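Progress note, sequence design subtask.
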């Protein structure tokens, strides 16, 4: 290779590496998705129907970044009274047959979302709270796990099933942020 071509190649390589390093220093990537995915047909025959308890859960699209995945779950108070919601949602990952997978649920910040920590909210009618479910799709030794759905519920409420493909790899871990009115930046 000629010296000018080699110098140009090295300059391009170094510029690319420098850009990668700058991105890594920015901290966690936040999810800004608000597009809801359809609910499981067993939960509500109509996606916009308000369940009898006045709480509707919707899952956004799964977002991906560098082997990490996440989606936002929105909790809407579609009822007529104010509801108290606190802490973290109760979450379980289900396989394609509806059986729970052996997955560790971690209440924390992840690569994809910042955990604001537990709080308590008076959720008025028409208002929403958000949580982010995230994981790493890393595969090392063993069999990879893939979930087909999750059950989710505000603490003390009836769990709802949401269709959500979670390609957990072999990590068997799911990070969950606390309920919050918005995503932490």
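Output:
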């Amino acid at each position: 290779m000629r010296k000018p071509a080699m110098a140009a190649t090295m300059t391009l390589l170094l510029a690319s590496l420098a850009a990668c390093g700058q991105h890594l220093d920015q901290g966690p990537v936040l999810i800004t998705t608000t597009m809801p995915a359809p609910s499981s047909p067993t939960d509500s025959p109509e996606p916009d129907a308000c369940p009898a308890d006045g709480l509707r859960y919707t899952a956004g699209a799964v977002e991906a970044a560098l082997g990490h995945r996440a989606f936002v779950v929105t909790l809407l108070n579609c009822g007529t009274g104010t509801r108290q919601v606190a802490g973290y949602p109760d979450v379980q990952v289900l396989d394609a047959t509806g059986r729970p997978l052996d997955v560790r649920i971690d209440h924390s910040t992840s690569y994809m979302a910042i955990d604001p920590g537990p709080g308590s909210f008076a959720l008025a009618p028409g208002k929403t709270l958000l949580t982010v479910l995230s994981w790493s799709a890393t595969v090392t030794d063993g069999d990879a796990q893939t979930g087909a759905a999750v059950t989710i519920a505000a603490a003390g409420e009836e769990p709802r099933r949401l269709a959500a493909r979670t390609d957990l790899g072999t990590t068997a871990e799911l990070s969950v942020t606390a309920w919050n009115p918005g995503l932490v930046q």
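The chain has a mean pLDDT of 82. Work on this subtask will continue into the next period as scheduled.
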